[in-house]
């Protein structure tokens, strides 16, 4: 077998072009063979199909690039959960924009490694420009805000707690019962005390309980660190950010806002008031592979001053030798806890420039409007109950007068048959179906078809007939 061609250099594009045609054909064929948002048959059926399609995974003699690409990508696509399908609405799992995916191809072909300037000369500058611009969106009144690219909200939240620990030593975290699980996990990972949980009986942090906890937990031996949420994973609700910031100021506590979901509302003049007070936080998490339509991963941690990131500085002589940095070579190691990392800023920068503020606002506003259309359809359906009007794009609902067991069975049946991908959430001591709408191409007809599937299946289950 001849030496395979490379993706980079002047000959790389010519080598990629025929391979990409094979890839795109396989993506198309696999999606057609799937017939819906999810492969039918459940886990064992999918496992058996993948094993059959890929065996042997490591043959003695290779099958060649086109056969391998066609076989594996067709099988993977046929067995994928497709967030571009209007009935794939379970999670904060966005269908990426085509232009962002195309930019990701260039990032893979060029393969800059963002741990030293000599591996990523232009990419390091582009990342700096992108993070500076995003930080200025979050902290418009600060002279030197900064941001880091992360793998997502979990890493950004972990970094926020790490930076707080490095500023203060001992810290006590206070977090809402509605907060993302990564906060508690980060405290465990960093050897911090278990976070004090503030009740969230209405889906957002209870201010009276927070004030009582801040008063009771104040100590000269540790700093208090409050984490608020702008867009919860269960209901999409937003904590009262300004009120929480006021309490933090009064009690001398620091504030981190996990805006992984709701942060991009900054780009919408219509909806940015929902996250008013974001700029009062000591750190903010953003996740643009949610309401930013980026291929994963595209997380952000923003801080009001670039000096806040100094504790992340690290020295490795082969990457950032002192005489190199003194001679003017940028030091990139302090931009992440990771060493090798992809230039995820490229796809973000391409999207920001291609769409602009108005284009991003249109996407956000349209998607939120779609969520309200779904809520309206549920409200006018006597066989369905709506939890509450959506804050962002998450809609909780359930069939009327059924048990939680029936709700769970409806969801799993739709998954197993491959007809729809819905999430689940507990609120008001009941189990709800969760639709997290992130597809800007979803129509009202798509939504009605989804609800018809659910009501028909519920009726079938209540009659005691096995679903088909």
Automatic annotation (TrEMBL):
<protein>
    <submittedName>
        <fullName>Pyridoxal phosphate-dependent decarboxylase family protein</fullName>
    </submittedName>
</protein>
<keyword id="KW-0456">Lyase</keyword>
<dbReference type="InterPro" id="IPR015424">
    <property type="entry name" value="PyrdxlP-dep_Trfase"/>
</dbReference>
<dbReference type="InterPro" id="IPR015422">
    <property type="entry name" value="PyrdxlP-dep_Trfase_small"/>
</dbReference>
<keyword id="KW-0663">Pyridoxal phosphate</keyword>
<dbReference type="InterPro" id="IPR002129">
    <property type="entry name" value="PyrdxlP-dep_de-COase"/>
</dbReference>
<comment type="similarity">
    <text>Belongs to the group II decarboxylase family.</text>
</comment>
<dbReference type="InterPro" id="IPR015421">
    <property type="entry name" value="PyrdxlP-dep_Trfase_major"/>
</dbReference>
<dbReference type="Pfam" id="PF00282">
    <property type="entry name" value="Pyridoxal_deC"/>
</dbReference>
<keyword id="KW-0210">Decarboxylase</keyword>
């Amino acid at each position: 077998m001849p030496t395979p061609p490379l993706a980079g250099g002047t000959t790389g594009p010519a080598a990629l072009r025929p391979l990409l045609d094979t890839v795109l054909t396989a993506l198309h064929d696999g999606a057609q063979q799937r017939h819906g948002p999810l492969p039918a048959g459940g886990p064992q059926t999918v496992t058996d199909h993948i094993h059959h399609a890929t065996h042997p995974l490591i043959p003695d003699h290779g099958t060649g690039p086109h056969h391998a690409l066609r076989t594996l990508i067709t099988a993977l696509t046929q067995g994928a959960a497709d967030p571009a399908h209007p009935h794939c609405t379970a999670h904060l799992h966005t269908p990426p924009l085509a232009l962002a995916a195309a930019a990701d191809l260039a990032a893979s072909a060029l393969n800059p490694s963002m741990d030293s300037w000599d591996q990523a000369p232009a990419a390091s500058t582009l990342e700096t420009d992108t993070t500076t611009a995003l930080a200025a969106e979050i902290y418009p009144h600060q002279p030197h805000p900064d941001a880091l690219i992360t793998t997502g909200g979990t890493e950004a939240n972990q970094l926020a707690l790490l930076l707080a620990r490095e500023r203060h030593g001992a810290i006590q975290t206070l977090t809402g019962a509605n907060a993302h699980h990564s906060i508690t996990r980060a405290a465990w990972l960093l050897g911090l005390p278990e976070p004090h949980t503030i009740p969230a009986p209405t889906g957002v942090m209870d201010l009276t309980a927070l004030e009582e906890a801040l008063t009771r937990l104040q100590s000269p031996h540790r700093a208090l660190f409050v984490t608020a949420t702008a867009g919860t994973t269960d209901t999409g609700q937003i904590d009262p950010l300004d009120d929480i910031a006021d309490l933090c100021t009064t009690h001398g506590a620091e504030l981190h806002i996990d805006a992984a979901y709701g942060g991009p509302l900054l780009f919408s003049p219509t909806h940015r008031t929902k996250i008013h007070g974001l700029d009062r936080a000591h750190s903010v998490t953003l996740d643009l592979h949610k309401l930013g339509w980026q291929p994963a991963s595209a997380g952000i941690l923003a801080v009001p001053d670039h000096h806040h990131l100094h504790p992340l500085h690290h020295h490795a002589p082969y990457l950032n030798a002192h005489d190199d940095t003194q001679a003017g070579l940028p030091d990139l190691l302090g931009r992440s806890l990771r060493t090798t990392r992809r230039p995820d800023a490229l796809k973000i920068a391409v999207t920001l420039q291609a769409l602009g503020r108005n284009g991003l606002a249109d996407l956000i506003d349209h998607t939120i409007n779609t969520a309200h259309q779904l809520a309206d359809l549920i409200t006018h359906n006597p066989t369905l109950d709506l939890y509450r009007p959506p804050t962002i794009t998450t809609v909780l609902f359930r069939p009327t007068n059924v048990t939680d067991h029936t709700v769970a069975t409806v969801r799993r049946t739709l998954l197993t048959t491959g007809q729809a991908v819905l999430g689940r959430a507990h609120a008001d001591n009941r189990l709800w179906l969760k639709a997290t709408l992130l597809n800007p191409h979803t129509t009202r007809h798509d939504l009605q078809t989804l609800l018809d599937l659910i009501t028909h299946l519920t009726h079938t289950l209540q009659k005691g007939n096995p679903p088909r």
